[in-house]
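Dear Dr. H.,

I hope your travels went smoothly. While you were away I took the liberty of generating a structure for the chain from your last submission, since the lab meeting agenda had it listed for discussion. I wanted you to have the full record in hand beforehand rather than looking at slides cold. The sequence, exactly as received, is reproduced here:
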Amino acid sequence: MNTMSSVHASTLATSVAPHLYWITSRAAGIVALVLSSVSVCVGLLMGGGVLKTRRPDLRVAHEALSLATLGALAVHGLSLLGDGFLHPSLGDVAVPFLSGYKTLWTSMGIIAFWALLLLGLSFYARTRIGPQRWRKLHRFTALAWILGVAHSLGEGTDAGQAWFLAMTAIVVLPALVLLLIRSLGPSRAATQARAAR
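The corresponding predicted structure, in token form, is as follows:
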């Protein structure tokens, strides 16, 4: 029985090994999609006027989710460098429109990554940027997130699978609803002016 288990484990390892980089990239991409969607939800709850009181613990959660998203996205792109099927170069995974593989969808993902990286890290320079200017800039995070969602639905290996579509709907739809509420609701300036009266 023990020999049978070791043979099975060896066979499994042999069949997984050539695809390990691709599996890692795929898993990190799914994790990034979930983390970024939850981060967008938390950000919109904080800044969209949905919650009546400020919650400092939400800011910490939003920051942690954003940084974790960036880490997962880095793993998602960089692990492809070892993929034996695509053989991408660093440029292929870092520069939009350079890769010959599903160029539009790949480029959407790359643009989303760079935008999320710059917009996310701009939080640490907000005093230099100015709080109002930073808030205006930070709104583009939602656009970068939407590009990332489009990338996962257009290029993702699991995009047509029922489990992936259900998981995507569970994490993306709440963020889209909050984004719609934020877009259609009164502006932050109007809300602050009303509160000041």
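Two observations you may find useful: The chain has one domain: 42-196. The radius of gyration is 20 Å.

With kind regards,
E. W.
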